[in-house]
Amino acid sequence: MKASEINFDGIVGLTHHYSGLAFGNLASAANAHKVSNPKAAALQGLKKMHLLMQKGVLQAVLPPHERPLLSFFKNLGFTGTDTQILKAVYALDPRLFGAGCSASSMWVANAATVTPSADSTDGRVHITPANLISNLHRALETQINIQIFKKIFSDENYFKIHAPLFSHLDFADEGAANHSRLCQNYGSAGLNLFIYGRSGSQEKVILPHQYPARQTLEASKAVARLHQLRSENTIFIKQNPLAIDQGVFHNDVISIANQNVFLFHELAFEDTATLVDLLKIKSHDSLYLLPVATSELSLQDAVKSYVFNSQLVTLGTGAMALIAPIESCENKNSHQVLLKIMAEKNAISELHFVDCKQSMLNGGGPACLRLRMVLTEAEQKACRARVFLDENLYQRLVQWVERHYRDRLSIGDLVDPLLLNENRVALDELTQILQLGTLYNFQKI
Ligand code: SUG
Protein backbone atom coordinates (compact mmCIF):
# COMPACT_ATOMS: atom_id res chain seq x y z
CA MET A 1 0.00 0.00 0.00
CA LYS A 2 1.22 3.52 -0.75
CA ALA A 3 2.40 5.28 2.37
CA SER A 4 4.48 8.35 3.16
CA GLU A 5 6.56 9.46 6.06
CA ILE A 6 5.15 12.42 7.93
CA ASN A 7 7.45 14.43 10.16
CA PHE A 8 5.54 15.64 13.20
CA ASP A 9 7.63 18.42 14.75
CA GLY A 10 7.23 19.65 18.29
CA ILE A 11 6.53 23.37 18.45
CA VAL A 12 8.99 24.92 20.91
CA GLY A 13 7.22 26.12 24.04
CA LEU A 14 7.21 29.63 25.52
CA THR A 15 9.37 28.61 28.50
CA HIS A 16 12.31 27.31 26.44
CA HIS A 17 15.35 27.81 28.67
CA TYR A 18 18.56 26.20 29.82
CA SER A 19 18.38 24.46 33.19
CA GLY A 20 21.16 21.90 32.77
CA LEU A 21 18.76 19.10 33.61
CA ALA A 22 19.86 16.27 31.36
CA PHE A 23 22.79 14.38 32.88
CA GLY A 24 24.85 12.76 30.14
CA ASN A 25 23.77 15.32 27.56
CA LEU A 26 26.91 17.43 27.20
CA ALA A 27 25.25 20.46 25.60
CA SER A 28 22.65 20.65 28.35
CA ALA A 29 25.39 20.76 31.00
CA ALA A 30 27.64 23.16 29.08
CA ASN A 31 24.91 25.72 28.46
CA ALA A 32 23.14 25.56 31.80
CA HIS A 33 21.85 28.95 32.94
CA LYS A 34 22.53 30.74 29.67
CA VAL A 35 19.87 33.23 28.67
CA SER A 36 17.57 31.67 26.06
CA ASN A 37 15.50 33.15 23.26
CA PRO A 38 12.19 31.23 23.09
CA LYS A 39 10.95 33.29 20.14
CA ALA A 40 14.03 32.51 18.06
CA ALA A 41 13.83 28.85 19.12
CA ALA A 42 10.22 28.51 17.98
CA LEU A 43 10.85 30.36 14.73
CA GLN A 44 13.92 28.22 13.98
CA GLY A 45 11.78 25.12 14.43
CA LEU A 46 9.03 26.47 12.19
CA LYS A 47 11.55 27.47 9.52
CA LYS A 48 12.93 23.95 9.45
CA MET A 49 9.40 22.57 9.04
CA HIS A 50 8.75 25.07 6.27
CA LEU A 51 11.86 23.99 4.38
CA LEU A 52 10.78 20.36 4.50
CA MET A 53 7.26 21.26 3.44
CA GLN A 54 8.63 23.20 0.47
CA LYS A 55 10.74 20.19 -0.41
CA GLY A 56 7.64 18.04 -0.63
CA VAL A 57 8.02 16.23 2.70
CA LEU A 58 4.73 15.85 4.54
CA GLN A 59 5.04 17.94 7.66
CA ALA A 60 2.85 18.22 10.73
CA VAL A 61 3.08 19.82 14.16
CA LEU A 62 2.57 18.77 17.76
CA PRO A 63 1.72 21.40 20.39
CA PRO A 64 4.01 22.34 23.30
CA HIS A 65 3.04 21.42 26.83
CA GLU A 66 1.70 23.64 29.56
CA ARG A 67 4.58 25.07 31.61
CA PRO A 68 5.20 25.94 34.38
CA LEU A 69 3.32 22.81 35.37
CA LEU A 70 1.51 23.96 38.50
CA SER A 71 -0.17 20.57 39.00
CA PHE A 72 3.28 18.99 39.40
CA PHE A 73 4.28 21.45 42.10
CA LYS A 74 0.93 21.06 43.86
CA ASN A 75 1.36 17.29 43.81
CA LEU A 76 4.57 17.84 45.76
CA GLY A 77 2.74 19.71 48.49
CA PHE A 78 3.22 23.34 47.46
CA THR A 79 0.16 25.44 48.23
CA GLY A 80 -1.07 28.99 47.80
CA THR A 81 -1.69 31.12 44.76
CA ASP A 82 0.07 30.28 41.51
CA THR A 83 2.57 33.10 42.13
CA GLN A 84 3.24 31.94 45.68
CA ILE A 85 3.83 28.39 44.49
CA LEU A 86 6.25 29.44 41.75
CA LYS A 87 8.22 31.63 44.16
CA ALA A 88 8.33 28.93 46.83
CA VAL A 89 9.56 26.19 44.49
CA TYR A 90 12.18 28.45 42.94
CA ALA A 91 13.46 29.58 46.34
CA LEU A 92 13.61 26.02 47.67
CA ASP A 93 15.01 24.15 44.69
CA PRO A 94 15.80 25.91 41.39
CA ARG A 95 16.45 22.57 39.74
CA LEU A 96 13.02 21.21 40.62
CA PHE A 97 11.60 24.51 39.44
CA GLY A 98 13.49 24.17 36.14
CA ALA A 99 12.10 20.68 35.66
CA GLY A 100 8.52 21.89 36.11
CA CYS A 101 9.15 24.73 33.65
CA SER A 102 11.10 22.86 30.98
CA ALA A 103 10.02 23.15 27.35
CA SER A 104 11.54 19.72 26.68
CA SER A 105 8.37 18.50 24.97
CA MET A 106 9.79 20.08 21.80
CA TRP A 107 12.01 16.98 21.34
CA VAL A 108 9.16 14.80 20.14
CA ALA A 109 11.52 12.11 18.86
CA ASN A 110 11.23 11.03 22.49
CA ALA A 111 7.47 11.35 22.75
CA ALA A 112 6.67 7.85 21.52
CA THR A 113 7.69 4.87 19.46
CA VAL A 114 5.58 4.60 16.34
CA THR A 115 5.48 1.69 13.91
CA PRO A 116 3.55 1.65 10.63
CA SER A 117 0.57 -0.53 9.82
CA ALA A 118 2.62 -2.50 7.28
CA ASP A 119 4.73 -3.89 10.14
CA SER A 120 2.02 -5.05 12.55
CA THR A 121 0.02 -8.24 12.38
CA ASP A 122 -3.22 -6.32 13.08
CA GLY A 123 -2.52 -3.85 10.26
CA ARG A 124 -2.73 -0.77 12.48
CA VAL A 125 -0.32 2.05 13.29
CA HIS A 126 0.95 1.43 16.82
CA ILE A 127 1.98 4.22 19.16
CA THR A 128 3.55 3.77 22.59
CA PRO A 129 4.04 7.06 24.42
CA ALA A 130 7.46 6.92 26.09
CA ASN A 131 7.58 6.88 29.90
CA LEU A 132 10.79 8.97 29.80
CA ILE A 133 11.52 8.05 33.40
CA SER A 134 15.28 8.55 33.16
CA ASN A 135 14.86 12.30 33.68
CA LEU A 136 12.37 14.07 35.92
CA HIS A 137 11.65 16.97 33.56
CA ARG A 138 11.05 14.58 30.70
CA ALA A 139 8.87 12.19 32.70
CA LEU A 140 6.44 15.10 33.08
CA GLU A 141 5.75 14.94 29.35
CA THR A 142 4.16 11.50 29.21
CA GLN A 143 0.64 12.17 30.47
CA ILE A 144 -0.02 15.12 28.19
CA ASN A 145 1.56 13.29 25.26
CA ILE A 146 -1.04 10.56 25.74
CA GLN A 147 -3.77 13.21 25.59
CA ILE A 148 -2.32 14.75 22.44
CA PHE A 149 -2.04 11.39 20.68
CA LYS A 150 -5.59 10.53 21.70
CA LYS A 151 -6.82 13.76 20.17
CA ILE A 152 -5.09 13.31 16.83
CA PHE A 153 -5.03 9.54 16.41
CA SER A 154 -8.36 8.67 17.96
CA ASP A 155 -9.64 6.49 15.12
CA GLU A 156 -9.15 2.98 16.47
CA ASN A 157 -9.70 1.46 13.04
CA TYR A 158 -6.30 2.81 12.11
CA PHE A 159 -4.41 3.62 15.30
CA LYS A 160 -3.62 1.72 18.46
CA ILE A 161 -2.34 3.92 21.28
CA HIS A 162 -0.78 1.86 24.04
CA ALA A 163 -0.30 2.87 27.64
CA PRO A 164 3.27 3.95 28.41
CA LEU A 165 5.41 1.12 29.74
CA PHE A 166 5.32 0.41 33.47
CA SER A 167 7.08 3.21 35.30
CA HIS A 168 10.21 1.49 36.55
CA LEU A 169 13.84 1.94 35.55
CA ASP A 170 13.88 -1.62 34.18
CA PHE A 171 11.50 -0.36 31.48
CA ALA A 172 13.03 3.04 30.85
CA ASP A 173 11.79 4.07 27.43
CA GLU A 174 12.89 7.10 25.38
CA GLY A 175 10.72 6.52 22.33
CA ALA A 176 11.69 6.85 18.70
CA ALA A 177 15.13 8.30 19.42
CA ASN A 178 16.20 4.69 19.94
CA HIS A 179 14.21 3.15 17.12
CA SER A 180 14.97 3.13 13.41
CA ARG A 181 13.29 1.51 10.46
CA LEU A 182 14.73 0.25 7.19
CA CYS A 183 12.49 -0.54 4.23
CA GLN A 184 12.43 -0.52 0.45
CA ASN A 185 9.20 1.48 0.23
CA TYR A 186 7.43 3.10 3.14
CA GLY A 187 4.32 1.07 2.48
CA SER A 188 6.00 -2.33 2.59
CA ALA A 189 7.04 -4.24 5.69
CA GLY A 190 10.25 -2.86 7.18
CA LEU A 191 13.02 -3.94 9.48
CA ASN A 192 12.65 -2.39 12.93
CA LEU A 193 15.87 -1.64 14.75
CA PHE A 194 15.54 -1.14 18.50
CA ILE A 195 18.68 0.29 20.03
CA TYR A 196 19.07 0.04 23.80
CA GLY A 197 21.71 1.10 26.29
CA ARG A 198 21.42 -1.51 29.01
CA SER A 199 19.47 -4.50 30.17
CA GLY A 200 17.19 -3.26 32.93
CA SER A 201 17.33 -6.50 34.88
CA GLN A 202 20.99 -7.36 34.49
CA GLU A 203 23.14 -4.29 34.02
CA LYS A 204 22.36 -1.68 36.58
CA VAL A 205 25.92 -0.72 37.47
CA ILE A 206 28.22 -2.23 34.88
CA LEU A 207 28.53 0.08 31.89
CA PRO A 208 28.57 2.89 30.81
CA HIS A 209 30.71 4.23 33.65
CA GLN A 210 30.09 7.92 33.47
CA TYR A 211 26.65 8.63 32.11
CA PRO A 212 23.36 6.75 32.32
CA ALA A 213 22.07 4.50 29.56
CA ARG A 214 18.51 5.71 29.12
CA GLN A 215 16.86 2.93 27.11
CA THR A 216 16.57 -0.65 28.34
CA LEU A 217 16.38 -3.85 26.32
CA GLU A 218 13.30 -4.85 28.29
CA ALA A 219 11.54 -1.65 27.26
CA SER A 220 12.41 -2.12 23.60
CA LYS A 221 11.21 -5.74 23.68
CA ALA A 222 7.96 -4.76 25.33
CA VAL A 223 7.30 -2.11 22.66
CA ALA A 224 8.03 -4.61 19.88
CA ARG A 225 5.60 -7.08 21.49
CA LEU A 226 2.87 -4.50 21.99
CA HIS A 227 3.23 -3.32 18.42
CA GLN A 228 2.78 -6.87 17.11
CA LEU A 229 5.96 -6.70 15.09
CA ARG A 230 7.04 -9.86 13.33
CA SER A 231 10.10 -11.27 15.09
CA GLU A 232 11.93 -11.85 11.81
CA ASN A 233 11.60 -8.10 11.12
CA THR A 234 12.85 -6.93 14.50
CA ILE A 235 16.42 -6.50 15.69
CA PHE A 236 17.66 -5.45 19.13
CA ILE A 237 21.03 -3.73 19.11
CA LYS A 238 23.12 -2.58 22.02
CA GLN A 239 24.54 0.94 22.03
CA ASN A 240 28.25 1.22 22.58
CA PRO A 241 28.73 2.13 26.27
CA LEU A 242 31.83 4.08 25.26
CA ALA A 243 29.66 6.26 23.03
CA ILE A 244 27.20 6.91 25.85
CA ASP A 245 30.11 7.98 28.00
CA GLN A 246 31.10 10.43 25.26
CA GLY A 247 27.66 12.03 25.31
CA VAL A 248 25.60 9.78 23.01
CA PHE A 249 22.59 9.73 25.32
CA HIS A 250 20.21 8.74 22.50
CA ASN A 251 21.04 6.62 19.49
CA ASP A 252 19.74 9.27 17.09
CA VAL A 253 22.82 11.27 18.05
CA ILE A 254 25.03 8.71 16.34
CA SER A 255 23.05 6.98 13.56
CA ILE A 256 20.23 7.70 11.14
CA ALA A 257 18.19 5.53 8.79
CA ASN A 258 15.70 6.18 6.03
CA GLN A 259 14.25 3.64 3.61
CA ASN A 260 17.27 1.67 2.35
CA VAL A 261 19.99 3.97 3.72
CA PHE A 262 21.68 3.57 7.08
CA LEU A 263 24.27 6.13 8.12
CA PHE A 264 26.11 5.40 11.37
CA HIS A 265 29.35 5.93 13.22
CA GLU A 266 31.41 2.77 13.51
CA LEU A 267 31.44 3.16 17.31
CA ALA A 268 27.69 3.63 17.59
CA PHE A 269 27.01 0.03 18.57
CA GLU A 270 28.67 -2.46 20.85
CA ASP A 271 29.13 -4.93 18.01
CA THR A 272 28.86 -3.02 14.75
CA ALA A 273 30.44 -5.77 12.61
CA THR A 274 27.83 -8.38 13.58
CA LEU A 275 25.04 -5.86 13.03
CA VAL A 276 26.31 -5.05 9.55
CA ASP A 277 26.47 -8.77 8.65
CA LEU A 278 22.95 -9.30 9.94
CA LEU A 279 21.60 -6.32 8.04
CA LYS A 280 23.18 -7.54 4.83
CA ILE A 281 21.55 -10.95 5.23
CA LYS A 282 18.16 -9.54 6.22
CA SER A 283 18.10 -7.03 3.39
CA HIS A 284 19.59 -9.33 0.75
CA ASP A 285 22.32 -6.73 0.18
CA SER A 286 19.82 -4.08 -0.92
CA LEU A 287 20.87 -1.49 1.66
CA TYR A 288 23.23 1.45 1.41
CA LEU A 289 25.25 1.00 4.58
CA LEU A 290 27.24 4.19 5.22
CA PRO A 291 29.62 3.70 8.14
CA VAL A 292 31.72 6.63 9.30
CA ALA A 293 35.10 5.65 10.71
CA THR A 294 36.68 7.14 13.83
CA SER A 295 39.64 8.15 11.68
CA GLU A 296 37.27 10.40 9.71
CA LEU A 297 35.28 11.69 12.64
CA SER A 298 35.84 11.22 16.36
CA LEU A 299 32.91 10.54 18.64
CA GLN A 300 33.70 13.87 20.22
CA ASP A 301 33.27 15.73 16.93
CA ALA A 302 30.15 13.72 16.12
CA VAL A 303 28.55 14.76 19.41
CA LYS A 304 29.72 18.35 19.16
CA SER A 305 28.44 18.80 15.61
CA TYR A 306 25.38 16.51 15.83
CA VAL A 307 25.95 15.48 12.22
CA PHE A 308 24.16 12.14 12.80
CA ASN A 309 21.19 14.01 14.20
CA SER A 310 20.46 15.19 10.69
CA GLN A 311 17.09 14.27 9.28
CA LEU A 312 17.40 11.85 6.40
CA VAL A 313 14.23 12.35 4.40
CA THR A 314 12.69 11.37 1.10
CA LEU A 315 11.65 14.48 -0.81
CA GLY A 316 8.58 14.95 -2.95
CA THR A 317 10.74 14.17 -5.98
CA GLY A 318 11.67 10.78 -4.52
CA ALA A 319 15.28 11.90 -3.97
CA MET A 320 16.79 11.65 -0.52
CA ALA A 321 18.15 14.61 1.43
CA LEU A 322 20.11 15.18 4.59
CA ILE A 323 18.79 18.05 6.67
CA ALA A 324 21.82 18.74 8.79
CA PRO A 325 22.42 21.11 11.70
CA ILE A 326 24.48 24.17 10.78
CA GLU A 327 26.99 23.07 13.44
CA SER A 328 27.95 20.12 11.22
CA CYS A 329 28.95 22.60 8.51
CA GLU A 330 30.95 24.64 10.98
CA ASN A 331 32.82 21.58 12.25
CA LYS A 332 35.58 20.82 9.73
CA ASN A 333 35.61 17.05 10.15
CA SER A 334 31.84 16.68 10.11
CA HIS A 335 31.66 18.83 7.03
CA GLN A 336 34.22 16.61 5.31
CA VAL A 337 32.13 13.55 6.15
CA LEU A 338 29.06 15.19 4.68
CA LEU A 339 30.89 16.20 1.51
CA LYS A 340 32.16 12.65 1.14
CA ILE A 341 28.63 11.24 1.51
CA MET A 342 27.40 13.65 -1.13
CA ALA A 343 30.21 12.71 -3.51
CA GLU A 344 29.64 8.96 -3.12
CA LYS A 345 27.27 6.97 -5.25
CA ASN A 346 24.45 6.39 -2.79
CA ALA A 347 20.80 7.32 -2.52
CA ILE A 348 21.41 10.75 -0.94
CA SER A 349 21.42 13.60 -3.43
CA GLU A 350 20.72 16.78 -1.46
CA LEU A 351 22.21 18.42 1.61
CA HIS A 352 20.62 21.31 3.46
CA PHE A 353 21.82 23.01 6.62
CA VAL A 354 19.33 24.28 9.16
CA ASP A 355 19.73 26.57 12.13
CA CYS A 356 18.30 25.02 15.30
CA LYS A 357 20.88 26.66 17.53
CA GLN A 358 18.50 27.42 20.38
CA SER A 359 17.50 23.77 20.62
CA MET A 360 21.04 22.56 19.94
CA LEU A 361 22.27 24.36 23.06
CA ASN A 362 20.13 21.89 24.98
CA GLY A 363 21.36 18.91 22.96
CA GLY A 364 18.41 18.74 20.57
CA GLY A 365 19.20 18.77 16.85
CA PRO A 366 16.96 18.61 13.76
CA ALA A 367 16.08 14.93 14.22
CA CYS A 368 15.24 15.33 17.91
CA LEU A 369 12.60 17.89 17.03
CA ARG A 370 10.51 15.49 14.96
CA LEU A 371 8.56 12.28 15.40
CA ARG A 372 8.38 10.23 12.22
CA MET A 373 5.19 8.47 11.28
CA VAL A 374 4.71 6.36 8.19
CA LEU A 375 1.03 6.65 7.27
CA THR A 376 -1.05 5.51 4.33
CA GLU A 377 -3.37 8.03 2.70
CA ALA A 378 -6.35 6.59 4.58
CA GLU A 379 -4.45 6.90 7.88
CA GLN A 380 -3.51 10.50 7.08
CA LYS A 381 -7.18 11.27 6.43
CA ALA A 382 -8.12 9.64 9.73
CA CYS A 383 -5.95 12.10 11.70
CA ARG A 384 -8.04 14.60 13.61
CA ALA A 385 -7.17 18.25 14.33
CA ARG A 386 -5.47 20.67 12.01
CA VAL A 387 -1.89 19.57 12.42
CA PHE A 388 -0.68 19.12 8.84
CA LEU A 389 1.43 22.08 7.81
CA ASP A 390 0.52 24.12 4.77
CA GLU A 391 1.51 27.68 3.88
CA ASN A 392 -1.51 29.11 5.66
CA LEU A 393 -0.91 27.23 8.91
CA TYR A 394 2.79 28.08 8.76
CA GLN A 395 2.05 31.80 8.47
CA ARG A 396 -0.48 31.63 11.29
CA LEU A 397 1.99 29.85 13.55
CA VAL A 398 4.76 32.35 12.78
CA GLN A 399 2.42 35.22 13.64
CA TRP A 400 1.30 33.41 16.78
CA VAL A 401 4.93 33.06 17.90
CA GLU A 402 5.74 36.67 17.02
CA ARG A 403 2.79 37.83 19.10
CA HIS A 404 3.24 35.72 22.21
CA TYR A 405 6.87 34.68 22.71
CA ARG A 406 9.57 36.46 24.65
CA ASP A 407 12.98 36.87 23.10
CA ARG A 408 14.91 36.62 26.32
CA LEU A 409 14.44 34.28 29.24
CA SER A 410 16.55 33.25 32.17
CA ILE A 411 15.40 30.75 34.76
CA GLY A 412 14.53 33.47 37.29
CA ASP A 413 12.13 35.05 34.80
CA LEU A 414 9.97 31.93 34.94
CA VAL A 415 8.72 33.00 38.39
CA ASP A 416 6.98 35.96 36.78
CA PRO A 417 3.20 35.42 37.03
CA LEU A 418 2.81 37.46 33.85
CA LEU A 419 4.71 34.74 31.98
CA LEU A 420 2.36 32.08 33.33
CA ASN A 421 -0.53 34.09 31.97
CA GLU A 422 1.22 34.71 28.64
CA ASN A 423 1.62 30.96 28.32
CA ARG A 424 -2.02 30.26 28.98
CA VAL A 425 -3.28 32.88 26.58
CA ALA A 426 -0.93 31.63 23.87
CA LEU A 427 -1.66 27.93 24.35
CA ASP A 428 -5.38 28.56 24.47
CA GLU A 429 -5.13 30.30 21.12
CA LEU A 430 -2.95 27.51 19.75
CA THR A 431 -5.51 24.84 20.58
CA GLN A 432 -7.96 26.85 18.49
CA ILE A 433 -5.54 27.23 15.58
CA LEU A 434 -4.79 23.51 15.63
CA GLN A 435 -8.42 22.59 16.34
CA LEU A 436 -7.44 20.50 19.31
CA GLY A 437 -10.32 21.45 21.59
CA THR A 438 -9.68 21.42 25.34
CA LEU A 439 -6.26 19.98 26.06
CA TYR A 440 -4.41 21.66 28.91
CA ASN A 441 -5.14 21.54 32.66
CA PHE A 442 -5.74 25.28 32.84
CA GLN A 443 -8.44 24.95 30.18
CA LYS A 444 -10.26 22.34 32.24
CA ILE A 445 -10.64 24.37 35.44
O1 SUG B 1 16.48 14.63 26.84
N1 SUG B 1 17.64 17.94 26.53
C1 SUG B 1 17.02 16.77 25.91
C2 SUG B 1 17.44 16.64 24.47
C3 SUG B 1 16.68 15.56 23.76
C4 SUG B 1 17.25 15.22 22.44
N2 SUG B 1 16.44 14.24 21.81
C5 SUG B 1 16.90 13.28 20.97
N3 SUG B 1 18.15 13.00 20.90
N4 SUG B 1 16.03 12.61 20.32
C6 SUG B 1 17.36 15.49 26.65
O2 SUG B 1 18.54 15.33 27.03
C7 SUG B 1 17.92 19.60 28.29
C8 SUG B 1 17.03 20.43 29.15
C9 SUG B 1 17.76 21.37 30.03
O3 SUG B 1 18.89 21.08 30.42
O4 SUG B 1 17.18 22.43 30.39
C10 SUG B 1 17.23 18.37 27.70
O5 SUG B 1 16.34 17.85 28.32
Structure description:
This protein is of the alpha/beta class. It contains 18 helices and 15 strands. The strands form 5 sheets. It has a 3-stranded mixed β-sheet with strand order 2-1-15. A 3-stranded mixed β-sheet has the order 3-4-5. A hairpin with an 8-residue loop joins strand 6 and strand 7. Helix 4 packs across helix 5 and helix 16 runs antiparallel to helix 17. It is globular, with a radius of gyration of 21 Å. The model has no long low-confidence stretch (mean pLDDT 96). Bound molecules: N~2~-(3-carboxypropanoyl)-L-arginine. N~2~-(3-carboxypropanoyl)-L-arginine (SUG) binds next to loops.
Helix content: 25-40%
| Total number of strands | 15
- Look at the helices and sheets and give the structural class: alpha/beta
| Continuous helix count | 18
Give the distinct bound molecules.
Answer: N~2~-(3-carboxypropanoyl)-L-arginine
Determine Rg (CA atoms, Å). Answer: 21 Å
Give start-end ranges of low-pLDDT stretches. Answer: none
Average of the residue pLDDT scores: 96
N-C termini distance: 44 Å
Query: What's the story with the biggest beta sheet?
Result: 3 strands, mixed
Strand fraction band? 15-25%
Task: Specify the overall morphology.
Answer: globular
- Main β-sheet, spatial strand arrangement: 2-1-15
